[in-house]
Amino acid sequence: MKFVIDFFRVWYKIINMNIKRDLENNLMTDLDRYRQMLFVSGPRQSGKTTLAKMIFEKIKIGRYLNYDTPDDQVLLLKKKSFYEEIDHEKGVSPLLIFDEIHKYHHWKNYLKGIFDRTKDEFHFLVTGSGRLDLYRKGGDSLAGRYLLYHLFPLAINELGDRRLALADFLKNPADLPENAKNTWELWKSLEKLSGFPEPFLKGEETFYRRWAMSYGKQLIREDIRDLVQINLISQMENMANLLPAKVGGLLSINSLREDIRVSYETLKNWIEVLENFFLVFRIHPWSQNVARAIQKESKLYFYNWSVVTDPAACFENMVALHLYCAVNHWTEQGWGIFHLHFVRDREKNEVDFLLTKDKTPFLLIETKLGDMEPSSSLLKMGNYFNLPIIQMVNLPGISRKIVRNDRSVLIVSADRWLSSLP
Fold this sequence. Notes:
By secondary structure, the protein is an alpha/beta fold.
């Protein structure tokens, strides 16, 4: 297995520049096409700073500023008109990059002031591990002044060259492309090492475990503690440690409240904070036109799926993040308004994932570790919605169409189907 991981480590290093260059080209295109600031947000250590520096190296004119660096912080706070000293070249707009500036208390007003004064002279790229579109709701609005991107952990469709065009995918979402290949070993490496670049590149489970032990604690005790006034930081850590066991089921805040012994509103706020700093994400039930549907409870997943120890829940979490990344990407590219939901009724008929485009469902997906027979809930909801249905399994080399109750079902290895996502 070590040889396999070493092989994929080398392979990933070879294709890594292509992955970054794809995202870099998207940003470069929008920098050239639009005058809005470009915001790149995402989990800590997902590669935002590396990406920003790559773009700056390409433009070479302007200034890169990191709020975590004392000298840059002094420049931002003490010499607010620093940009006036930047040389301009004919026909080239300098690029101002603000990395982690959301840690500055008045960051929105600060950016708004500079942008409104200089938007015709400079391009702007802003990165941060907090949700730049949601964090610190007070102060002047930046609405209309930025375009938002997200940089998530690595997904299997980023690590190859078999991605479909979205139009082709939407025509037959429950089909497996003819050129789909076996990506099983890569999938298992992601499963064990997470999709975060540093542990994935190392290719060592021992390093991943040491990295993971500090990741969540650093996020809470450094980023969240410094930016959000939480007095009971140890209890918040306890809550975060309990959440991996909740993956795959409905999230009951009342149940957590009994374990942590804080108020319902406090727990609700804490979970929102963990979402805002990309430790977890939630998907919500689809209840439109579903008789006796669950409407309130959400399902919670981790960006670092490897913290989930239950094999079935970890597998569901991996698939959830791949789909969540995809619908965010499609929406940010302006291809439509896409969302990820689940479906569950009062009789406990549940399907793990429902994908929608412009508020219209178009695909149902169920995850099973190794069950080759479609679940009864998947068949029932497939008939109810009259949608294509897929059952993904955590087994290698599976791709078969079967018919049950007059419904065609694709039973497929998750790695093979997800590797072709647009």
